[in-house]
Design brief:
mainly beta; Methylamine Dehydrogenase, Chain H; globular; 3 helices; single chain
């Protein structure tokens, strides 16, 4: 098993033994570059590693390596919006190979929000106009991290015509015809948990200038619906089931986004960024709740904990064995957690630590090293 880790200052690859109990760490890869996401394309003979992000001086990139990360090609020809849009790509937040039935096709999501497609294994790129010039782009707003961001690209595991994208802020969209049209599918995710209700009540008292703000929404969309899924994932063994950690709660759908249930009840906070979904068919999902107060604390509340559900969100279990605490205050970014196909769970923190569990979160071990702030964690076999 390998775990690909992107950080603010480069990337690292962890490699395990067969039991996933002993781990080694690579040398720094792409040192000095911010790596927002990593992935691997195993659809051809030689696995191709991808690293996506941006550099304060050299700009956005999707780099690839065919020798395990020893050398990288950072040229990203075509990774730009059309000039007449008046928008400039600042960084790349997600890179995703398509299904095996679409050889050579790779997608990238950017900030400001945009979708780009490569048909030559990531050598060159072209904008996906059906997304980038979507009629509802006018409703895509800024996030806490700046401009709108297309941060999630999720491929249906068996249907090459179907894929999902998430925009913060702006909603989650689906295409079922190979990208010809895109429809919003997050507009029925209505928060019902009492914690988020109290947040809005406190906001009205403490910040009355924001209480009556009118945020424009697309026609037919409930203003109360979630417009910012921090991270959304499909269950690869049941692709009609999707999970989302949003700004105001955790949600689950069992019909591909037609209807959503707020399953936040039982968690210590509605807020968080990553969400992990089991790839073994046991239905498990994992989150890292963060405190959310008026002072914008947004870290774990003293005990680092991963919470797990195995019953669709009806109940949640706090998992802490092997995780740091008490007096541990850190966070996990939206791409900072992943699972493997053997029941493993992996999480990387803003303090530069990587934790691994080989048994679905019951027990954790810290992997070697202390890295720069971790932005992304990807489990992979190659």
């Amino acid at each position: 098993m390998r775990v690909l880790v992107g950080t603010r200052k480069g990337a690292w690859v962890y490699t395990s033994d067969a039991a996933r109990t002993s781990w080694t760490i690579s040398k720094p890869l792409i040192p000095g570059w911010s790596v927002s996401h990593m992935n691997v394309d195993t659809r051809r003979g030689t696995p191709r590693l991808f690293a996506a992000g941006g550099h304060w001086a050299w700009g956005p990139y999707v780099a690839h390596s065919d020798d395990g990360g020893n050398t990288w090609d950072q040229r990203s020809t075509g990774l730009a919006f059309p000039v007449d849009m008046g928008v400039t790509v600042g960084s790349v937040w997600n890179v995703q190979p398509a299904l095996a039935s679409r050889p050579g096709v790779v997608y990238a999501g950017t900030q400001p929000a945009g979708l780009f497609r490569s048909e030559d294994w990531g050598e060159t790129w072209a904008p996906v106009d059906e997304v980038n010039s979507h009629p509802w782009r006018q409703f895509w707003g800024d996030t806490g991290g700046g401009a709108s961001t297309l941060h999630t690209i999720a491929m249906h595991p068996t249907d090459p015509e179907c894929m999902y994208i998430s925009v913060a802020t702006g909603g989650t969209y689906v295409t079922r015809n190979g990208g010809k049209t895109w429809e919003i599918c997050s507009h029925r995710a209505i928060p019902t948990n009492p914690m988020q209700k109290k947040m809005w009540e406190d906001l009205a008292v403490n910040y009355p200038q924001f209480a009556d703000m009118d945020f424009p929404v697309p026609p037919g969309v409930d203003p109360a619906a979630v417009n910012e899924m921090h991270k959304m994932r499909l269950d690869p063994t049941n692709p009609k089931r999707m999970w989302a950690q949003t700004h105001v709660g955790v949600f689950r759908t069992d019909d591909g986004g037609e209807h959503w249930d707020d399953v936040t009840q039982g968690l210590p906070s509605f807020h968080g960024f990553p969400i992990g979904v089991s790839k073994t068919g046991d239905g498990a999902a994992f989150v890292v709740p963060l405190t959310f107060e008026a002072d914008n604390f947004r870290v774990v509340d003293g005990q680092f904990a991963v919470w797990r559900t195995r019953d669709g969100g009806s109940s949640w279990t706090c998992l802490t064995e092997g995780l740091p605490g008490p007096n541990d205050y850190q966070s996990v970014y939206r791409e900072g957690m992943d699972t493997d196909d053997e029941g493993g769970v992996y999480v990387g923190t803003t303090n530069g630590a990587v934790y691994a569990s080989a048994d679905g979160g019951d027990h954790w071990q810290r992997l070697p090293g202390t890295l720069p702030p971790i932005v992304s964690v990807t489990a992979a076999k190659f």
